[in-house]
Amino acid sequence: MDAVRFDPIRLQPGHLSRPRSHERWRCEYTESTSYPERGSCVLVEETVMASTALICDTEPWKDLKEHINVIEKTHLRDLMNDVDRCQSMMVEFDGIILDYSRQRAHLDTMEKLFKLAEAADLRKKIDSMYNGEHINSTENRSVLHIALRAPRDKVICSDGKNVVPDVWDVLDKIKDFSDRVRSGSWVGATGKALKDVVAIGIGGSFLGPLFVHTALQTDPEAADCANGRQLRFLANVDPVDVARNLKGLNPETTLVVVVSKTFTTAETMLNARTMREWISTTLGAQAVAKHMVAVSTNLTLVEKFGIDPANAFAFWDWVGGRYSVCSAVGVLPLSLQYGFPIVEKFLKGASNIDNHFYSTSFERNLPVLLGLLSVWNVTFLGYPARAILPYAQALEKFAPHIQQVSMESNGKGVSIDGVPLPYEAGEIDFGEPGTNGQHSFYQLIHQGRVIPCDFIGSIKSQQPIYLKGEVVSNHDELMSNFFAQPDALAYGKSPEQLLHENVPDHLIPHKTFSGNRPSLSLLLPSLDAYNVGQLLAIYEHRIAVEGFIWGINSFDQWGVELGKVLATQVRKQLHLSRTEGGPVQGFNFSTTTLLTKYLEVEPGNPSDSNELPRL
Ligand code: F6P
Questions:
Q1: Which domain holds residue 107?
Q2: What is the pLDDT of residue 396?
Q3: 62, 304, 439, 597: which is the annotated catalytic residue?
Q4: Catalytic residue check, 439
Q5: How far, in Å, are 212, 348, 534 from residue 181 at the CA level?
Q6: Is 260 in the pocket of ligand 1 (CB under 6 A)?
Q7: Beta strand 96-99 with 519-524: parallel, antiparallel or unpaired?
Q8: Full-prediction pTM beyond 0.85?
Q9: Is 412 designated active site?
Q10: Which GO molecular function annotation, any one, does this entry have (predicted)?
């Protein structure tokens, strides 16, 4: 084994070169001897017996590469005329309709993609996931979020142990606790019922629960159950997020849920200490036991923090942060807000898709079809982004959640065996609910870049409005756009059509729409807790399918580490300069200059007494 030491703040381009296929590199953080106040990264090169087999070396891959030429000669305008093709590209499962006829694909393309799935051992990889094998090989862990929503009698094993009873022990504990809080039998330190919940967490310990909460807020059944209660999320370490979340809250009636898989995430822990201070300043230190609970895999650190282990809700290392919304991470705050029965419906929806994904042939399997089409768009057709466009305000936070699930999972540059990928993997996800997005970035997707779009709609509105005298209901108005936009993208508008409409010559280039822009439509029956669970699981599994085809590890996230290490160096410098007035040292010119300016304008030490937001 050979080790190369480098200063992370003075990285030279040469240090970042990709490993050769027989090498693996590991970044280790160690204390620095030259700068005792700072550490350094050691890039350790290990020679390993990595498999160099890549999916791009298989025949189905090469076949698809050649097939691009065929597809490039087609236009969606013509493909959409083939009714048999369109019929074959419409799949229905449990009331959910997927229409992928507006993808730049023939039936032949699909056959070739199924062959690619075979070459990538997709079936075997799905089975390995469901069998609890350690498919997250760099962290040596199983990937079993499916167990979080499995029925009580299901057997799902990790390391030879059925994990489903443990899952249900925690679910039962959540049900009991949330029932007590909601009924007022668990009260705060001054005897008042706890009506408001602040869930502290970031990334996977925040985005999924926020998405589900936002989706349920206007579901009539869920909304009824949440009457008089508030659920807020504190994620950002920016003190402004604390100020905004505390506004209007009374510590006497507030329960804080600290959510962190590791219980070490800097942002979450500082926010947790801030909230602990907020409670104990007003109610006394003993109140913390009544007003703070935790969700974590690290129960030792929970106890060290001062939260009673009896009020800690466990999950397990076989649940990835971004796949944890169905664990206590999401189930506890959501049950406190909506009651356990609503959350159980959500879990049942996700479980329904888990079964569908596991047992349905690839030709009719929603996550598999979606995953294969994403690979086709990203890697073969060269469209790196995907727009997630729910025509449902309730799904406002769906795209931000999927951004993490997708980009943290598949934003990788090497295969699962550590071999640099000679093709692009991962995709750039972004989105906004329709119709808001139409008035924001749709110009670009109609006439600028080609961005494959996911249109998501629901047949029934959560909150229908009908106005006498209006042509259509408000939901129909919304859905008119859901149905129109995919055709506008696919068909476009030709110069001939514009001429026919007497458009002046000089405007024709500006008013021409090239069309041939791919999209798919997902139509859900409604947006109740069950459907929301289904939608979540469809995307989780779709993203896994993409990773399985690309041959990467979709379940680790080493890419988030380096920035955290560098922030540690800066934090130490800020502390030193603020407490001892020491000069900024050991950083490059740019960082030194900015840090010096920052310290000049905001001088002084952290105050001896606590300062909390004044809003
Ligand atoms: O952003 C990196 C990450 O590790 C995510 O994967 C995770 O969801 C998030 O931080 C929060 O981590 P934790 O739940 O351990 O606080």
A1: 55-119+363-553
A2: 98
A3: 439
A4: yes
A5: 20, 24, 28
A6: yes
A7: antiparallel
A8: yes
A9: no
A10: glucose-6-phosphate isomerase activity
